[in-house]
Amino acid sequence: MIKQTEIVNIESLISIKHPYREFKRMLDFKEIIENIKFEEAKTDAGADGYGKNRLTLCLILQFLEDLSDREMERYMRENLAGKWFADFGISEETPTYSTFCKFRNMIGTKNMGNLFESVNAQIKQKGMMREVFTFVDSSALISKLTTWEERDRAIKNGETTFNNEIAKKEEISSRQTGTIW
Q1: Which of 5, 79, 137, 173 is most buried (CB neighbours < 10 A)?
Q2: What is the pTM of this model?
Q3: Alpha carbon distance 112, 89 (integer Å)
Q4: Measured in whole angstroms, how far is the alpha carbon of residue 118 from the centre of its chain?
Q5: Which of 87, 109, 99 is nearest to 43 (CA)?
Q6: Dihedrals φ, ψ of 179, to 5°?
Q7: In terms of C-beta distances under 8 Å and separation of at least 24 residues, what long-range contacts does 48-55 make, across chains too?
Q8: CA-to-CA distance for 34 and 168, rounded, in angstroms?
Q9: How do the pLDDT tens digits run along the chain, 181 residues long?
Q10: How many C-beta neighbours within 10 Å does residue 126 have?
């Protein structure tokens, strides 16, 4: 068996039409990363030296791919496009799952929200996303007050437990007697 050595660049291994390329072209990640406020030195020491830029790109990729920390560790180890997106080399060591957790904790909840707001704002600005309205049919929702009233009626009627079946019976009974809450 003959073994060959070939010098390759990760850039050449990722298709020109790969969605990560489009995403990187579309967004200004430098601006997004600059919105995260904490000391770079702290990041290098506290997150295994990968740096704020690469770890932020990993978090964005993790969100895009909907991966757990352990899945993200494996994804970064095995996926060339993921490595390329987060600025890792082909054979370079990538973060472990605990690094992602440490980094999120270092950033904090508010900065995580700011990070994704910044991504969303840029996507909206490029016309790739629109505001969406959410409508909720509240007729199917039971308020806590209603549940307590039904429980009190059930106790008054001699019930010793309160479950969905008894709640339904109390709801029907209250409608028949006209005592709608």
Answers
A1: 79
A2: 0.64
A3: 26
A4: 14
A5: 99
A6: -100, 65
A7: 48/95, 48/96, 48/99, 48/102, 50/95, 50/99, 53/29, 53/87, 54/86, 54/87, 54/88, 55/95, 55/99, 55/100, 55/103
A8: 54
A9: 888 888 888 888 899 999 999 989 989 988 888 877 765 444 444 455 898 899 999 999 999 899 999 999 999 999 999 999 999 999 999 999 999 998 988 888 888 888 888 888 888 888 877 766 555 555 544 454 566 677 777 778 888 777 777 777 766 666 666 554 4
A10: 10
Which residues lie below 8 Å from residue 55, measured CB to CB, with a gap of 6+?
A: 43, 47, 95, 99, 100, 103
The amino acid occupying position 164 is N
Contact present, 92 and 25 (Cβ < 8 Å): no
- What is the amino acid identity at position 41? A
User: Phi, psi (5° rounding) for residue 58?
Assistant: -65, -45
* Closest to 51 in 3D by CA, of 14, 82, 94, 20: 94
Phi first, then psi, for residue 53 (nearest 5°) are -60, -50
**Domain coordinates of the chain in residue numbers?**
10-125, 140-177
